[in-house]
Amino acid sequence: MAEFEPRPLANILVTGTPGTGKSSTAEMIAEKTGLKHFNVGEFVKVHKCHESYDEEFDTHILDEDKLLDLMEEIVGKEGGYVVDYHSCELFPERWIDLVLVLTSDTNVLHDRLTERGYNARKIEENMQCEIMMVVSESAFESYPEEIVHKVPSNNVEDIDSNAARAAAWLTAFQKEKK
Known about the structure:
Elements: E1 11-16, H1 22-33, E2 36-39, H2 40-46, E3 50-54, E4 59-62, H3 64-76, E5 81-84, E6 98-103, H4 106-115, H5 120-131, H6 134-142, E7 148-152, H7 156-177
Parallel strand pairs: 1-5, 1-6, 2-5, 6-7
Antiparallel strand pairs: 3-4
Helix pairs in contact: 1-7, 4-5
C-alpha cells in the first residue's frame, strides 16, 4: 500500500440525502472558516465525470474513477475544503477529517424536493433513503465513528448551528496539529 503525504489543511465532508441542506451548510462553513466549498455535483457536471444518464431518476450516472482521480489532485493533496455531496462512501478515509451527516424531518424534506421540481419517483426514492438512514449508515461504515456527526438540518438555525459546530471543530483541530 502506498504511503501518502499528510495534507497541510483539514477537509470536512457535508453529506446527506438530497434536500437536507448540504450546499447551504457547506457554504456557511466555508464562510465561517475560510475553507473552500467543493460542490461535487457541480464539479461532476463541469468536468463531465459521468458515464450516462438515467431517465427514470433524472440523473447522471457517476464515473467514480474519473471523479476521484481529479479530486485527488485537489482535495486529497491540499486539503482546506468543505466537500458537499449526497454520498460519502466513495471518498477515501484519508481525505476526510470530519463528516457532518445532515438529516431532515420527512415533511421538511418532501417540501424541499417538491420545490426543486423532482419527479414523484425521485422524491419517493430520496424520502425512503432518509427514512432508512442510508447516508448516515454509510458514513458510520466508511469513516471512524469519532469523526462522524449526525446533525439536524430543518431550518436556518440548524444550518447556522452546524456551521458554528464545524468552525469550532476546525479551530480545535488546527490547535491540535501545531
